[in-house]
Design goal:
Order of helices and strands: HHHHHHHHHHH
Helix content: over 70%
Protein name: LysE family translocator
Largest sheet: none
Keywords: Cell membrane, Membrane, Transmembrane, Transmembrane helix
Number of helices: 11
Transmembrane segments: 38-62, 74-91, 148-170, 182-204
Strand content: under 5%
Main location: membrane
Organism: Paralimibaculum aggregatum
Number of domains: 1
Length: 207
């Protein structure tokens, strides 16, 4: 691939990753409610999940899995179930009056947050379809292992920029102050957004 083609591919990848979705919503919710360290841990988990799909797609296993309807269906249902759980969690928080103290907001270790981010992206069909499209459409069929690896690393760098950037942005003092003022409204909005994403995933059909 030429330098111009790689630049266009990276730009499309970054714009796609930055578009609203379960990962960005989770980062916004975590960053505003819990602060920078949990948000960065969540971003690291999301990037890990994306890297896993990237490796599978480069090996051809992602495309192989998606040719089996049962595998794609299981992935879709698992993703919808996890996002629905996030919706219920946000709505329950919105129904609790008052503002939780900082200790309550920080509940749950960073490792648990990291695993949640990894699970979020491993159950996100958008991730494997995105990686699959890159290796099936954008990358030349005669690309060698070195070129596949370099393209994968370039795209992963784009993912790191997007998701860690969101983690930093949503955990700023201004964002957290806004959350403390409007906590119940914000959590309610996240609950509805997560619920809508889960419903869209449940009703989606391949093709």
């Amino acid at each position: 691939m030429s330098g111009a083609e790689l630049a266009l591919l990276l730009l499309a990848w970054v714009l796609g990753g930055a578009s609203p979705g379960p990962a960005t919503m989770a980062l916004a919710s975590t960053g505003m409610s819990r602060g920078r360290a949990p948000a960065l841990a969540l971003a690291a988990g999301i990037v890990t999940g994306s890297a896993a799909w990237g490796v599978l797609a480069a090996l051809g296993l992602g495309a192989l899995m998606l040719t089996h309807a049962w595998a794609a269906e299981a992935l879709r249902l698992a993703g919808a179930a996890y996002i629905l759980w996030l919706a219920v969690k946000a709505l329950r928080s919105a129904m609790r009056p008052g503002t939780p103290p900082p200790a309550a907001m920080a509940r749950g270790g960073l490792w648990r947050v990291y695993l949640g981010g990894t699970l979020l992206h491993l159950t996100n069909p958008k991730a494997i379809f995105s990686w699959g499209a890159v290796y099936a459409v954008a990358v030349p069929a005669d690309a060698g292992a070195a070129e596949l690896a370099s393209i994968g690393l370039m795209l992963m760098a784009g993912s790191v920029f997007v998701f860690f950037g969101y983690a930093w942005l949503f955990s700023t003092g201004a964002a957290m102050a806004c959350y403390l003022r409007l906590r119940r409204w914000i959590e309610g909005a996240f609950g509805l957004l997560f619920g809508s994403a889960a419903l869209a995933l449940l009703t989606a059909r391949p093709g």
